[in-house]
Amino acid sequence: MEKLIVSSSPHFHGKKTTQSIMLDVIIGLSPAMIASVVIFGFRAAVVILTCVASCVLSEYLCRRVMKRPQTVGDLSCVVTGVLLALNLPVTIHPLIAAFGSVVAIVVVKQMFGGIGQNFVNPALTARIVLMNSFPARMTHWTAAFDYSATADAVTTATPLASFAANADGTYVPDYLEMFLGAHGGCLGETCALAILLGGIYLIARRVISPVIPLTYLGTVAVLSLLLGRDPLFDLLAGGLMLGAFFMATDYTTSPLYFWGRVVFAVGCGILTIIIREFGSLPEGVSYSIVLMNILTPLIERWIRPRAFGLEKQKRKGELEG
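Above: the chain's sequence. Below: its structure in token form.
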């Protein structure tokens, strides 16, 4: 008689691990990192290295203090550091960047149990904290290709800020300039081309599904058109591309199933365009994604796949009744 082996799930082991997925994300973010260094100079590299080092150190020390197994090797803290850095201006003080890293890793991630347990995106939440704590520092932009020291840098406005300041329609955006990143802004929100290359890589590697990015971008474009705005401008401006491909698709804080992802992405798009059109701040990507992160458990509760055989069971119950 042949014996059956009983074991706990998972029963099948795939080739992908957390480390390999995070490595793919880092590779996907590489074009944006390279573009930021080209556009803003060595200071961009300093911001990125500061955030990554602070995130890695924060996770290591936090896991030691909590007496939990180390998770630095899964590279998720590195991804958080890179994403946070790409959401910061090049002129940010290193100590403020390090403070944001501590918030992202210790407060948002580790205090809720570590990877897979946080209910909001760590990098975006840290950016929101920094925006409310250091608004002047977080909105100090420099012109593209101005490699001078921070104190001597030429200050400029982002395309969204220029659009908001010229609501009468006198502002005419340069789409090619926005696509290639030759303007002021956060490190990762300038070059749309670099973000697209990284996003296509992640989709090709099946690290992310195209459902959320395409639905998010499509919702913003449609609502922008309906409100009389410029859809192409809204797609290329701000952190929309970075948020759609790299942060709204976070495994932990976004829905698992197709229709849940659609609802999640539509919600992100609606909130983004509402904040851009009616809010006091020109950008709304960070707030929209974090708010939808909070609603993700409710979305998954309301919109879930039908269990196999459920309809048949209902009919059987009705017949027996």
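Residues 42-65 form the longest helix (24 residues).
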